[in-house]
């Protein structure tokens, strides 16, 4: 009996040992399976993350490549690619504008701020060099243009002695300039014709006489004639035509205007602009908003007219609009005070209402706005040279013509940029308009 019990006990122990070993084995298998499963998850997750990163990186690279391709497309001018077979010339014109903007932006980007500010000034050669009368361009001109990279120089009868002297002086001046230079003159035809007065060209006649003929073709012919001899000497800007609509009794403008009928004057102005600019000389409409209704002269002091905006819209604005539509590169803003428009006696040349809101906004002029000469009494009696220049730029003007004291005006504007009174972006805005005119022939070529 004892032997039987012992045998049963041994069997029970063996069964327990077997069950224990089986449990251990199953646990080991479970652990191994868990480890393998976890490893698989980790490997899968790593692969997934890698895949995601790869996709993200591919997308990033694709985006970067797309941007580079777009930049390459924008930087290359290839008419064969961009020109539609059956389209008009409009796409080509837009491509030219884009190319012109590239040239302009590249030029401006390289300029130090001192050159940018100087490029907004249009002065006499005497103001640049400090001489009494400039009749040649030599070492002093070269030195001063290096110091002050002005945007333009205006010449008068006193600077012109002979054809050879004038041609050489203007050629040397262009060569000494670091940047393209406007070389301008008042050559309206008639009484205000500097080159003619110097005996170096034949007078095409007054615009008053041409206006009285009623033949706009004569206005264009006069513009072509003037452009021909001006460009021959080296001028590239004419401060003409006069777009003022004359009222009876006005002696300040007189026969410099094409007449008193706004519509007819507009036709003459547009034709004259075409004649000048087709001959390679930029036209400058003057004297916005119109000096034809006052007998007073802004050279002597403040000149005020009581005309309303509606009055100008039915007179002078018609002729200025015609010149703008004809493509005039410049508009000169006078120092006329128009309180019924601006609300006070602020001269138009330093009025944001007149320049930005009306000339640019209402009349749609996108070219270069230049002030009338800032050494006139209408300005000098109320502002210092630097104050006037800063106010004009704040109002929206692009170029300052003949400040009372160039160095004072230049240093004042430079300081205004440095202290934040004027932003560099504002300066660049004007430079872009200026250089679009200076470089437009490069695109056309």
Strand order of the largest sheet: 9-8-7-6-3-2-1-10
Query: How many beta strands in the DSSP annotation?
Result: 10
CATH architecture of the largest domain: Alpha-Beta Barrel
Helix count from the secondary structure assignment: 19
Radius of gyration: 38 Å
Level-1 CATH class name of the largest domain: Alpha Beta
Would you kindly provide a written description of the structure presented here, covering whatever features stand out?
The structure is a single chain. This protein has 445 residues and is of the alpha/beta class. It contains 19 helices and ten strands. It has two domains: 75 residues; 355 residues, TIM Barrel (Alpha-Beta Barrel). Strand 2, helix 7 and strand 3 form a beta-alpha-beta unit. Helix 3 packs across helix 19 and helix 17 crosses helix 18. The longest helix has 74 residues. The radius of gyration is 38 Å and the shape is globular. It starts with a helix and ends with a helix. The relative contact order is 0.09. The N terminus is likely disordered.
């Amino acid at each position: 009996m004892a032997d039987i019990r012992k045998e049963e006990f041994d069997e029970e122990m063996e069964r327990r040992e077997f069950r224990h070993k089986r449990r251990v084995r199953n646990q080991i298998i479970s652990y191994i399976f868990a480890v393998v499963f976890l490893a698989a998850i980790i490997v899968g997750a790593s692969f997934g993350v890698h895949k995601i990163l790869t996709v993200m990186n591919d997308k990033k690279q694709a985006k970067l490549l797309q941007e580079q391709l777009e930049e390459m497309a924008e930087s290359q001018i290839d008419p064969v690619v961009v020109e539609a077979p059956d389209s008009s010339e409009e796409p080509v014109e837009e491509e030219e504008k884009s190319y012109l903007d590239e040239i302009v932006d590249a030029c401006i980007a390289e300029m130090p701020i001192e050159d940018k500010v100087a490029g907004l000034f249009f002065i006499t050669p005497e103001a640049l060099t400090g001489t009494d009368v400039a009749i040649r361009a030599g070492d002093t001109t070269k030195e001063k243009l290096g110091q002050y990279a002005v945007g333009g120089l205006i010449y008068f009868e006193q600077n012109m002695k002979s054809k050879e002297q004038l041609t050489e002086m203007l050629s040397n001046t262009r060569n000494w300039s670091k940047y393209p230079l406007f070389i301008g003159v008042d050559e309206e035809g008639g009484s205000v014709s500097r080159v003619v007065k110097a005996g170096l060209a034949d007078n095409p006649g007054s615009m008053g006489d041409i206006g009285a003929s009623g033949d706009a073709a004569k206005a264009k012919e006069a513009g072509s004639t003037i452009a021909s001899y001006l460009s021959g000497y080296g001028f590239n800007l004419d401060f003409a035509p006069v777009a003022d609509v004359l009222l009876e009794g006005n002696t300040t403008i007189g026969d410099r205007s094409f007449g008193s009928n706004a519509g007819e004057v507009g036709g003459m102005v547009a034709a004259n602009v075409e004649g000048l600019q087709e001959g390679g000389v930029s036209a400058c409409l003057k004297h916005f908003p119109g000096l034809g209704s006052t007998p007073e002269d802004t050279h002597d002091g403040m000149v005020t007219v009581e005309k309303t905006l509606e009055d100008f819209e039915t007179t002078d604005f018609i002729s200025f609009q015609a010149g703008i539509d004809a493509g005039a590169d410049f508009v000169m803003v006078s120092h006329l005070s128009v309180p019924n428009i601006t609300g006070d006696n602020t001269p138009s040349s330093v009025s944001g209402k007149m320049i930005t809101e009306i000339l640019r906004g209402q009349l749609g002029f996108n070219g270069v706005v230049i002030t009338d000469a800032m050494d006139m009494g209408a300005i000098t009696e109320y502002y210092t040279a630097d104050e006037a220049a800063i106010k004009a730029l704040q109002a929206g003007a692009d170029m300052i013509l003949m400040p009372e004291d160039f160095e004072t005006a230049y240093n004042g504007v430079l300081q205004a940029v440095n202290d934040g009174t004027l932003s560099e972006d504002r300066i660049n805005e004007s430079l872009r308009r200026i250089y679009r005119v200076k470089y437009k022939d490069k695109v056309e070529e």
